[in-house]
Amino acid sequence: MSHALPVTPLDAVTAALRRALPVLPVVAVITLLGLPITPSDDGGANIADAMSGLVVLCCAIRLVRARRRPLSVTAAVVLGLPVVGIAVSAAGAADPGAGIAGLTRYLQIFVLVPAAVLLLVRDRRDFRLLAWSFVALALWQGAVGVEQYVTGTGASYQGEYVRAVGTFGPADVMGMATVVAFGLVCSVALALGTDAARQRAVAVLCALALLPPLAMSFSRGAWIATAVACGAQLVLAGLRRALKMGAGVAAAGMILVGGLGAGTAMLQERIASISQVTDAPDQSVTDRYTMWAAAADMWREHPLTGVGLKGFPDNRDGHAALALSSGSDISGAGAAYRKQPLLSPHNMYLLVLSEQGLIGLVALAGSWLALLVCALRGLVRVRRAPPDPAGARLTSGRTPPGTDCGLVACGLIVWQLIDFVYADIGGPSTVLTAVVFGLIGWWALMDPSARTAVDAPAPVLSVPEEAAAR
Questions:
Q1: C-alpha–C-alpha distance, residues 113 and 435, integer Å
Q2: Cα separation of 189 and 409, whole Å?
Q3: Model pTM?
Q4: I need a surface site. Which of 165, 179, 218, 231 has the fewest CB within 10 A?
Q5: For residue 248, how many C-alpha atoms fall within 13 Å in the half-sphere facing its CB?
Q6: Domain ranges for the chain
Q7: Can you tell me whether residue 470 is helix, strand or coil?
Q8: Eight-state DSSP code of residue 22
Q9: Which is nearest to 189 in space by CA: 216, 226, 222, 217?
C-alpha cells in the first residue's frame, strides 16, 4: 500500500517556479531596474536592456520547440505596423550609424520585446505575476525616493536636494516617477477588479503607499497621466465603486499634501504651476514649448518621412527659437553638477513626427490606438461574459474573473498615451515601456476565450507544448 508524501513548502515553491518559468525572464527585466544606475549610465543600453534581448531569445526558442504559429493575423498587423515608419525613417537618416541605432531601439521598445512578452504570458496568473512585479519595483523605487526626499539626498530642485529619483539618478528624473506610476495604476486595477478580500486589501495598501513617492517626484506629467488613468479605471470599474474609491483617494491626497513637512510649499507650488503653463511658464516649460515648435518646424520641411531617426538633435538649433536654454541643470543623488543638453522635444508624438514624418506617426500611433480599442473591447466582453459553471468559486462575487487584468491593461495604455504628451523614450526606464506594451498586447490581442477561462491550478499548455517543454 503506497502512501502519498506530504507537500512541503519547498515543493510548493519549486512547483510555482516551474509553473512561472516562461515569464521569469520578463520578471528579471523588471527586477534589474531596481539596481542603482551610475551617473555615467544615463544613455545607451543597460543590464535591463540586455535582459530584454534574452527575453526575445527565450521566446524564439520556446516557439521553435512548441512548433506553433506565434501570432494571429491581427496581432501581427498591430505589433508590426510601427516597422513601416521606423524602417523608412532609418533609411532616410543623415547618419547611417545613428539610423541603425535608432532602428534597433525602436524595434526593441515597440515591436520585439512587446511581442515576446505577449507570447510568453500564457494566462491571467502570469499576467498578475507581472503586474505585481511592477508594484514591487514601484514600492522599492518609491522607498528609495522617499528616503531621498526626507534626508535631502535627492536630485536638485529649486536649489534643494529634495526631488525623489530613486536609483535612476538625476539624469533620468522621470525614471522613478514612471515606475511608481506604473505600480500605482496596477495597484488600483488589482484592487478594483477583484472580489478577493486579500488581494483588494493588499492592492489598496500598495496604492496608498505609492502616493507619497509619486508626489515627491515633482513630475507634473506623471501626475496628470496617473490621475487620468486611475480615473478611467474607476469609471470602467463601475460608478458605485468609482465614487467610493474616488472619495478615499481624495482624502488620502489631502492628508498627503498637508503632511509632507518642509517641502509642502514647493509641492503646492509645483501643483499650482500645472495651471500656469500658459500664463507664467517657468524655464522648463518654455524650453519644452520651444522644442515642440522646433519639432513641428522640422516636420513642415519633411512632412512624409521626417528628418530621419536620431535626427532631432542635429536639426534642433536650426529650428529652435532663442528662448531655448543651453540645457537643464542636474545634480544631487550622487551626481556632480553638470548641464544636460536638451536633445529631444519631450513629446513622443512630436518626436516621431519630426523624425519619422506622417508615415511614422500614423503607423506608430495607429498601433497604440488599436491596442487601446482592443483592450477596452476585451474588458467589456469579460464583464458581459456569462458565469462559467466550472468556475463557481471564482464567479461567486459580483466582479467577473479577469476584470483586474483588463483594468491593468486599460489603465496602462491610457497612462502611456497621456504621458507621451509630456515625455518620450530615453533613459534606463525605457525598457519598462516595452514590457508594458507587451502586457497590454496580451490582453488586447489574445484569444478572447482566454480572458474568461477559469484560472486552473495546472499550467495552460497543450500536449505538444508540454512534450516540447520536457
A1: 7
A2: 9
A3: 0.87
A4: 231
A5: 16
A6: 34-279+342-386+397-469
A7: coil
A8: G
A9: 226
The amino acid at residue 452 is T
- In DSSP notation, 412-424 reads HHHHHHHHTTT--
One-letter-per-residue 3-state SS of 393-412: CCCCCCCCCCHHHHHHHHHH
Count of Cβ atoms closer than 10 Å to residue 288 Cβ: 20
pLDDT at 205 over 90: yes
Cα 154 to Cα 9: distance, rounded to the nearest angstrom: 41
Residue with cell 542603482: 36
User: The C-alpha cell of 147 is what?
Assistant: 528616503
Beta bridge partners of 157: 160
Amino acid at 128: R
Here the cell at position 18 is: 516551474
Nearest to 82 by CA among 99, 57, 105: 105
Rounded to 10°, the helix 47-66/24-32 angle is 170
Distance (Å, whole) CA 215 – CA 223:
8
In 10 A of CB 399, how many CB atoms?
20
Which neighbouring-strand residues pair with 338? Answer: 330
How is 101-167 classified by DSSP, letter by letter?
HHHHHHHIIIIIHHHHHHHH--SHHHHHHHHHHHHHHHHHHHHHHHHHHHHT-SEEETTEEEE--TT
Place of cell 515543493: 11
Read off the C-alpha cell for 247.
472619495
Report phi then psi at 328, rounded to 5.
-95, 145
C-alpha 390/C-alpha 193 separation (Å) is: 20
* Residue 61 phi, psi dihedral angles, 5° rounding: -65, -45
Q: Which cell numbers hold the place of 135?
A: 508594484
For 139-190, the pLDDT digits (tens) are 999 999 999 998 988 888 877 888 889 999 888 888 999 999 999 999 999 9
At position 303, the amino acid (one-letter code) is P
**Cell 525598457 identifies what position?**
431
